[in-house]
Amino acid sequence: MKIDTFQEKQEIIKEKASVSEQIFEMLELFTDLANMPYISYYTYDYEYNDFFYEFSIDKNGKKIDAPSGELKKYKILLKRKNIIFGYILIYKKIKSNPILHKLLLKINKHLEKQRELKRKLMGNDISFNIYLIHDEDLAMFAKNMKSGLEGLFNVEISMGTSIKKYSHEIKSKDTKHIIIYLINDQEKIESQEKYIKYLNELIIVIGPNDHHTSMYCGRLGIQNYIPINEFRAEDIKSIIINTRNNLMQKNKFGNKIIGINGISGGIGTTTIAMNMADLLATNLPNKNILYIDLATTKAISNLFLEKNPLPEKTIIDLINTNEFNIEKNLEHGLIKKSENFYCITGIQKHIDKEFLEKDIFIEKLLEYISAASDDFNFIIIDIGISDASNLKSTIYDVVNELWLVTEMTLPHISKLKTFYSLMKRAGLKDKISFIVNRYDSQNALSVYDSQSAISVSDVTSILNMTNEDKEQFDSFKIPNDYKSLGKCWNYCELASEKAQDSLFIKKLDSILKDKGFYNKGKDSSKSKGWFASIFKKGK
After folding, report:
1. What is the pTM of this model?
2. Which of left, alpha, beta for 155 (phi over 0: left; psi -120 to 50: alpha)?
3. E strands along 6-82, which residues?
4. What is the tens place of the pLDDT at every residue in 379-431?
5. How open is the CA angle 260-261-267, to the nearest 5 degrees?
6. DSSP H stretches of helix in 313-463
7. Which of 254, 246, 156 is nearest to 428 (CA)?
8. Which H/E stretch holds residue 336?
9. 309-336 tens-digit pLDDT
10. Cα–Cα distance, 93 to 105 (Å, whole number)
């Protein structure tokens, strides 16, 4: 940080502290003038979309414990220009008078100033900007919608008839952007199609109840279409809250994010993901690889990648640092396994699972992955067991490829059928590759009763697949290689390092070649990857 920037920041910190002290004194004065024994103050936090307790004070300005018991409570909302700051909780009714009203206006003005200083100090405290683009004859509707959305969200909304006006702001990636189109027909979308195609933002279209227009928007990658006769402001809020986590840069110079997902537990997902990441790092020395363990049960990747039975820091500690910085992250859970292979190991306690599902954690995780995908050519995410949780559904949207690991037994294929149907309905079918693990080419699955094994034809029939899909089950079958893998597991070693000639590694290596990740017959290190420029390699 430059000296002048540091000094400017220190001045903002001082000013913010002064404003906060003035707000406290005004709340003390309010308590006294309203003849209250005490009041409580709550602030609004947009990230959680909720109010949080700050403190309680008596009329002498002394902070006290939060009042408890069966007390009547009344709220005085603190807001200015539709921006909510918080509320005062009082414990008896008061009569309005000009002095109290004037004092509340002053408190709101200072809270607005406090918010502006916080934004200067920490960056934009609003997680997104909203742009409302409308047809000219829907200006009044758009104006009313703007007021409603400002009330629902703690944001100011830009409104106009063309997205071109805001193109410079939208190109800035300091914050996320949400674009809402309010249209009579698809003409507005057609006129701005070339801009829409290159936007990675969340776009919502509110338009006529017309299947043709809806389908047209879908072809442009617009996933949220609401018929205008069914519109409610709460619908917009629901879409934004549930989808804003997915706003990521989708095309980072050809870099890929790959999810490995098991149809059930103990099926070999982590073994495949870890060894796959290590094979990529070994065969692509000028590419950077990041492995992320997102398993929602106690992670075991740390035993193989970090050689640590109980790491002090895990994915939760790392993501909560709120920053992608290689050097700093190495102190908070990022592990450097080799020169171009880094990993983030998963949770170690079952109680930590609840943190993985919190909206705030998911948003921070996606921001971290988005930043990391600038520096890492391949991000391998070990997703664990397939399910439709908020965390995993979000990751399914983000990844470029999703490898589904299964076995050729009826119980597994039955589960796969249900999950595969869900993925097709979600429009994610094209991302999916099927990896059949522990498949014996002699058609004898030694670890299972032979009667439970089913053929590829049976599987593709059950799943109602095309011939193209069927080829995956024929091509991407990993043989049962317990002998080699068992030894590696006993010593917590990667088969890619200790058993390169094993059936398991040979087949996994073949799959990576077939998918075009690398080709050993050619020079795969010609292109200078991001490592050279970002990590200063070769200086």
Report:
1. 0.54
2. beta
3. 38-45, 50-58, 63-64, 74-80
4. 999 999 988 888 888 898 888 899 999 988 888 888 888 888 888 877 788 88
5. 110
6. 315-319, 326-329, 353-356, 359-372, 390-398, 410-425, 456-462
7. 246
8. strand 334-338
9. 888 889 999 998 888 888 889 988 899 9
10. 19
